[in-house]
Amino acid sequence: EVNLVESGGGSVQSGGSLRLSCAASGGLNSTFCMGWFRQAPGKEREGVAAIGTDGRTTYADSVKGRFTITRDNAKNTLALLMNHLKPEDTAKYFCAAELGAGPSLSRDDFGWWGQGTQVTVYS
Fold this sequence. Notes:
Blueprint: E1 3-7, E2 10-13, E3 18-25, E4 32-39, E5 46-51, E6 57-59, E7 67-72, E8 77-82, E9 91-99, E10 112-113, E11 117-122
Parallel strand pairs: 2-11
Antiparallel strand pairs: 1-3, 3-8, 4-5, 4-9, 5-6, 7-8, 9-10, 9-11
């Protein structure tokens, strides 16, 4: 059973930065595609960034050039560095994983999810 635990959320002023981390356990390894999703109140969960087993990455247009996703297969961790944050980035951020190549921003392609960490950006 794959277990994902996010950390690093918080409140930050517009233009600031945050780094989210996801610690994975329970058999997850380099054969899993991993991703970050977010969900704001009243909105659907959307893909933010994903990284495949070969290291290829994909980003939502809204975060391209501002967010960077990385993974450390030796430590079974996933990170999301978020720069130039905007109030519209405010949401609960979730780490996700699925066996397979990826990368994918479709939530239907992921079967394992963390509990999420809140990110609030104030102006």
